[in-house]
Structure formats: structure tokens, C-alpha cells
Amino acid sequence: MQTREFFVSAPGKVILHGEHSVVHGKVALAVSLNLRTYLRLQSTSSGEVCINLPNIDTFLSWEITALQPLLAGCKEQDDLKELDADLLKRLREFTGISDDSIDTRSMAVLAFLYMYLTVFAESLASITVSVWSELPTGAGLGSSAAYNVCLSAALLSARGTISSPLTPQQESARWSKEEMELINRWAFMGEKIIHGNPSGVDNAVGTWGGFLRYHAGNITPLSWVPILRILLTNTKVPRSTKVLVSGVKDKINKFPSIMNPVLESVSAVSCTCEQTLTEMAAHRPSAEHYDILEELIDINQHHLNVMGVGHSSLDTLCRVTLARGLHSKLTGAGGGGCGITLLRPVSVRMASCRLHDCLA
């Protein structure tokens, strides 16, 4: 393979309503952030495979001859619906990463090795992968999904499975719809490795960008939406999406008659939010529209607390912003991480009034 470089990037995401509801196929709304993760892949002739993750202080390399035996008996990844459990088990034994590990570095390495081996199964390539990101890890902004989207896009391009549309004369380019769908499916495999049972929202937003409606695995881009001003607050409380999602699932299994109506209500919140955004795009946004969005934010935050994914730091954010006439909710899996606050056009200056000091 000739020495070539691929540069790809993917945005983070904010969940406006209902990420946990998609566990049961309900509606969720998500929008991409300008914060991004970047990946550079360089083909070499050194006979090594290297990954460099400066944000989490990781540089690892392996001889291709050491990785080759891991492919014995691997299944072809044609449908990209289920992980190859045998390969994943061998990779855990090879790396020493336990089944219950939630360490960011370890899971990023495991996802990389799995995707590298399955994409290049016929002939392992000698490559160096460098990833750097503007997104904090474990904060509910989809940093792992942005990483997996970049990784799948770069590896599939290097393998020749998808095209390399960027030319030296261009600053950016976009793949075809079919290629984007393939990138998204591979990224979802990486998300499964890291999170266990992810919804698929994060990798969809990381792949497609923009504003998305997600329902039972179906993604609908929403082009006619108003511009919303959102204040993003990082509580700096780390948490594990895998643990939180598992906790929600356990609560649903334990109290189905109680939790299923909650999930239905969260889905209704998302649908009502979508209707309101559509009206705001078709007509001039009014105070009444913002009243509805703020009520939906409050209702959704209460739902998420009932589901067990709240945190005292997020309660503080909601209380402090509400005292200033603003409404907030968690984004992502909850349990800490980031919260979002809706800013009315006339409230932007007021919202920035020493919010950091209030939360300290």
C-alpha cells in the first residue's frame, strides 16, 4: 500500500429530548455541535499498527504478525448487525481489557482493534492512526461516537470500500448517501463495543450532522428548523454511559408498568418539540413557542430523573438557571456530564451573568 493520509472529522451532539427512550424505539431529537473530533490515518510500510490518542495520553503499537492470529475463525461482517463475540473475546484476552471495563483509554483501543481487524481482514495494512478532539470524554457530548465515525470513515477509505472524495484543491468533501450509511453502521459497531447497548443516536448525528429525528433506528434529517441558542454547561462530573443505560434497562425490567408510560411520555415530549420547531421555522418564532419549549425541557428533565439518570450537579444547574428565568436539562446519558439551557433571544446577555460563579 502506498503512503497516503486521510483526514476526517465528526461533530459532537446535544440531545434535546429523549435519548433513553429509543431503547424501546421511541422518538428522540438530536442536533450536532460545532465541537469536533479529528482523525488522521497514514499508511506506512513499517509492518506495525499504531494508534495515537493525545487527548487521553495513549500511544500504542502492535506488530501485524502478532495481530494476524486473532483473525482465525472470524465471521464476515456483511450485515453489520451483531458483533463477532469470539473476536471480541480474543481481543480482550490479547489486550488484557476485562468485560466490565469502563476505562476510556481501554475501550477506545478495543474499538479500534476490532474495526481495524474486521475492515482489513483479508490483508492487514500497516497504518498509523492519530486522533485528537475538542470534545471532553464522558460528558454526554458523543465523544466516543465522533471517534468511531472518524475511525470507520478513515479505515473504510483506506481499504477502498468507500471513495476518497477529498482532493488537494478542496478543504472538505462529503461521501454519497450509501457510503454515509455504511460509515454509520460501522461506527455503531464501535459504539456497541464501548457502551454495550447504545441507542444509535450519537453515531447518527456524528455521521450526518445537523438536526435529526431518530425513531426505531430510522433517521430523518430535519432541515426546516429554527436557530436555537443553547448554553452548554459541563458539570465536570464523570460518568459511564454503559452503566447508566444498563441502569435504565434494569429499572424498565423491574417496573414495566411504571416505566413504560414514562418512556411513552418522553416520546410524546420529543414529538411535541418537533411540531413546535416546525411551526417556529414556518412562522416567526414567538414567545408562546419558547414557552412551550421551556415547559417541555422541564417535563423531560423530570422524566429523566425518574429514570434514574439525574445528578445533584444537574439539579444545581436547573435551579440556578431557573432563578434567572431559564430552563435546563441534561444531555446524553446523564449522571453528570453536560447540561443544556435554552436561551431566548432577549435572554442571552442575562444568561451569561456569572453563571460559572453561581455553579461553583
Q: Summarize this, please?
A:
43% of the residues lie in helices and 21% in strands.
Explain what this protein looks like in three dimensions:
It contains twelve helices and ten strands. Helix 3 (104-119) runs parallel beside helix 4 (143-159) and helix 5 packs antiparallel against helix 6. It is of the alpha+beta class. The chain has two domains: 5-222, Ribosomal Protein S5, domain 2, CATH 3.30.230.10; 229-356, GHMP kinase, C-terminal domain (Alpha-Beta Plaits, 2-Layer Sandwich), CATH 3.30.70. It has helices spanning 64-67, 85-95, 104-119, 143-159, 177-195, 201-208, 241-254, 256-282, 287-306, 312-322, 348-351, 355-359; strands at 5-17, 27-43, 48-53, 58-63, 127-133, 211-215, 218-221, 229-234, 327-330, 338-343. Helix content is 43%, strand content 21%. The longest helix is centred in the C-terminal third of the chain and has 27 residues, at 256-282. Strands 1, 2, 3, 4, 5, 6 and 7 form a seven-stranded mixed β-sheet that branches. Strands 8-10-9 form a three-stranded antiparallel β-sheet. Strand 9 and strand 10 (338-343) form a beta hairpin. One of its GO terms (cellular component) is cytosol. This is Mevalonate kinase. Belongs to the GHMP kinase family. Mevalonate kinase subfamily.
